Amino acid sequence: MIRSxxxxxxxxxxxxxxxxxxxxxxxxxxxxxxxxxxxxxRVELRGFGAFTTRARxxxxxxxxxxxxxxPVSAKRVPYFKPGKEMRERLxxxxxx
Length: 96
Description:
Blueprint: H1 3-13, H2 19-38, E1 43-45, E2 49-56, E3 59-62, E4 69-72, E5 75-82, H3 84-90
Antiparallel strand pairs: 1-2, 2-5, 3-4
């Protein structure tokens, strides 16, 4: 599902809101997640999962085209850990 599909589905399920209002809500939701992660925080959505960041150390990488060594600086990267309910739904074994 892409962002526009999410907006359309939410608009369809909430006829009291127009498409522009739903789009503002979705934008706000994602902006708040990114802002919290950028400030070093954590976002937990019960039953869905938790967004955090992890630190990556500086390292020496390699340019795949030339093979030349390239310095890669330290950085923080987003990390998602699925919640228990999500893991259980994804791993339901069908009885055949």
